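My hope is that you will study the protein record below before we discuss the fold together.
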Amino acid sequence: MRASVIIPSLNAPTLSRALQAIVAGTELPDEIIVVGRDETGALSALPPPSGSGPGGGIVRFIDTGAPSAFPPPSGSGTGGGVVRFIDTGAPSAFPPPSGRGLGGGIVRFIDTGAPVCAARARNLGLAAATGELLLLLDADCIPRPDWLAAHRARHAAGEQVVGGAVALAGSNYWAQSDNVSMFHEFIPQQPAGPRVLLPTLNLSLRREVFAAVGGMDESFPGAAAEDADWTIRIRRAGYRLWFDPAAVVAHSPARTTRADVARHWRNLGHNAVRVRLRYPEEFGTPAGARRAAWWRLLSPLIAARITAGVYAKRALWRHWPSLPVVYASKMLYCFGAARAIDSGFATRP
């Protein structure tokens, strides 16, 4: 089964590590598509294949509807220089083990010209992908060597949508604690089985699922809760969401300060409450949750209840130093939810 890996990246410092890990895996995808911005030059600095030049197929252009920082060659006919793909020559920059090639030797970069929301980046990558198996991987996720093999095996067993596990690797206390709060339900120690929703930092689906359900809702700003909305919509369309703890990535977020974590959880609450109100049956959302005052007044109790649930999992006991941050993050989530209700964003259709 032809496999495409889609990686949204907004100048992610971990992108090269993610690409190295994919290429070093026990199985290789047929293509990797990176979508977003590369203002630091991490991709453009990669050496192209020997003997290729600017006119020799390294850059191919078609219109994506976004202005580009990469002007097309003279006479390319793209109507103003909108870039779709930059072929980075990944096998030269990322030498695979034992001389293996990477599906013909191309990592493709879709330059969006300006920062776009995560939903837009992923939708562009999904639309451009040519594989029957579509894998979504975040740029701050480092897959284990058998990551792709585990996803393929689960699909070979009959699943159509598979979410993998998240190893709670963080570069410091704040990143580690953010991981514990965010992905405690998707750690490798959790049992395999069906889920109500799945995060898309480590997700695979068959092309026919994407064709039937469509892409993510691009009205969600930033990178928060658009994946929950999308995977619930997939499940409502009749496809089972399967969690497989064998398909593991290590998540190394850039949220390394208290301010980073606080911003993340306010933004998550802002976006996620819209999902909770849109799908009340999935979450058991009470009627009072449509009022901002409900979130503000009950925030200490909501945070305490969720934090207790996190640490009810024995596998997370070793992360007890993160408990204060987990509790505070849930409080901030509530305040973000209240803000979304006040602004009207939470109740948009």
Observations:
- The longest strand covers residues 241-251.
- The two ends are 37 Å apart (CA to CA).
